[in-house]
């Protein structure tokens, strides 16, 4: 019989499989995707948020535990389990040597990746290289990997894992790790969660899925129906404002529009609706998808002028270009008079300051609602550019409630042999909001914990059976 069955194929699943195998357990990993699409959302990642008390190879200065915690507390608005969050934070300081042993390489913060040289360790070759390195290491260690192996249901008995089904095939194991992602690719579930807005629209119909098409939430739904303890709001997600021209699935990071803090954002009615300069972009980029989702038609427009060009990661698609603001309004299909009222009000409200996009500068607006708190400069230098935005969902936060052992819980009682990691439990740490790289921190920390615990449970059962 298999010792540890890992269901999923991304970062958390691979960390679990590697740890379980290193602990001496036999391991089978079931990846729902075909080999060429393996890796889940992890293949679209770039970096890992890391605590460190002093400069470390690719990380500059220091990023101590308390600052990491305060950053997380701020973006979640307190919707986080402090004990589990601090577990993740501390684990992020020690995981990189282990990652290197499994073939992951790091590089300094990329040009255009603002404000992350101190906080985030970037993967050389990106998430795809990380995923490939882990798969190579897993295969070398003897982990058996099966692709196109979608698990539809489990057999559970009194809170214990017994078996999983791939189609009509029943697969038994002494313990199991669930790491099969959220439900972001399940349009029906998204519609159920978001419902209709006041205008009678179904907002979810206009969502674009930044990540994998294979995260349909099948196992999450099964576990919910099996009365596993759940946590999180099904409408909360890592949701980013991305280019409206992005593909429906797997657009990844290159579809993100990163010039928001350098200009203004207006909705379909040509009105601003949020402070574009509230905080550094890595701490705020993931709120903008939800903000756009709340606008009429789930569309918005990021507006910049020539002064912003070259100061942000260039998007994959060129923006709509115009030599005047009225011309830009017409090109974007916005009401010209309303647009000009909005732009003139913003430009008039900008106060002189010392512009510096690397700090929370003193360039702000006065008497404007909503304000622009930092990096507010008049948009007055042609050419002008506009980017149409749509909500881009990376992963959902509804998940399974856990403790520090990563055990799935039923009625408050932890399972003895069923564990969970990654997006299926990220809502314990991320009730809402996001800060760059923390999803990989959660997946790495709890993937390693889940794999270790699953191996311990399986090997103990094996010993009892042999006694």
Automatic annotation (TrEMBL):
It holds the Pfam family FAD_binding_2. The keyword Transmembrane helix does not apply. It comes from the Bacteria. SUPFAM superfamilies: FAD/NAD(P)-binding domain, Succinate dehydrogenase/fumarate reductase flavoprotein, catalytic domain. The keyword Transmembrane does not apply. Residues 3-429 form the FAD-dependent oxidoreductase 2 FAD-binding domain. Keywords: FAD, Flavoprotein, Oxidoreductase. Its cofactor is FAD. This is FAD-dependent tricarballylate dehydrogenase TcuA. It comes from Paraburkholderia strydomiana. The lineage of its organism: Bacteria, Pseudomonadati, Pseudomonadota, Betaproteobacteria, Burkholderiales. The gene is tcuA.
């Amino acid at each position: 019989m298999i010792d540890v069955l890992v269901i999923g194929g991304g970062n958390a699943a691979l960390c679990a499989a590697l740890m379980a195998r290193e602990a001496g357990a036999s391991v089978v990993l079931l990846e729902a995707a075909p080999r060429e699409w393996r890796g889940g959302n992890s293949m679209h990642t770039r970096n890992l948020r890391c605590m460190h008390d002093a400069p470390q190879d690719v990380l500059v200065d220091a990023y101590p535990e308390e600052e990491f915690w305060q950053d997380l507390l701020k973006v979640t608005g307190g919707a986080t389990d402090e004990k589990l969050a601090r577990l993740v934070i501390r684990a992020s300081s020690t995981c990189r040597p282990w990652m290197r042993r499994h073939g992951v390489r790091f590089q300094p913060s990329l040009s255009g990746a603002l404000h992350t040289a101190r906080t985030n360790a970037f993967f050389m070759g990106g998430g795809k290289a990380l995923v490939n390195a882990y798969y190579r290491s897993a295969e070398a260690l003897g982990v058996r990997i099966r692709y196109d192996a979608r698990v539809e249901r489990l057999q559970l008995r009194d809170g214990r894992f017994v078996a999983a089904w791939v189609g009509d095939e029943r697969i038994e194991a002494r313990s199991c790790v669930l790491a099969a992602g959220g439900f972001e690719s399940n349009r029906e579930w998204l519609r159920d969660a978001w419902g209709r807005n006041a205008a009678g629209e179904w907002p979810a119909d206009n969502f674009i899925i930044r990540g994998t098409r294979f995260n349909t939430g099948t196992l999450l739904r099964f576990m919910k129906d099996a009365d596993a303890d759940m946590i999180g709001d099904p409408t909360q997600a890592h949701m980013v404002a991305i280019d409206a021209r992005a593909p429906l699935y797997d657009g990844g990071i290159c579809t993100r529009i990163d010039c928001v803090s350098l200009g203004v954002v207006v909705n379909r009615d040509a009105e601003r609706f949020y402070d574009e300069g509230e905080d550094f972009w890595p701490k705020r980029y993931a709120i903008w998808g939800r903000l756009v989702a709340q606008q009429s038609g789930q569309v918005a427009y990021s507006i910049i002028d020539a002064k912003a060009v070259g100061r942000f990661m260039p998007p994959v698609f060129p923006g709509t270009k115009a030599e005047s603001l009225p011309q830009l309004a017409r090109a974007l299909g916005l009401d010209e008079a309303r647009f000009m009222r909005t732009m003139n009000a913003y430009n008039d409200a900008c106060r002189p300051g010392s512009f510096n996009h690397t700090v929370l500068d003193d360039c702000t607006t006065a008497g404007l609602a909503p304000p622009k708190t930092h990096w507010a400069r008049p948009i007055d230098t042609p050419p002008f550019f506009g980017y149409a935005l749509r909500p881009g969902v990376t992963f959902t936060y509804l998940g399974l409630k856990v403790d520090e052992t990563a055990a799935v819980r039923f009625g408050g009682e932890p399972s003895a042999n069923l564990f969970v990691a990654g997006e299926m439990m990220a809502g314990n740490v991320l009730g809402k909001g996001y800060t760059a790289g923390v999803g990989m921190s959660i997946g790495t920390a709890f993937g390693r914990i889940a794999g270790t615990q699953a191996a311990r449970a399986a090997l103990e059962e094996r010993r009892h059976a042999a006694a």
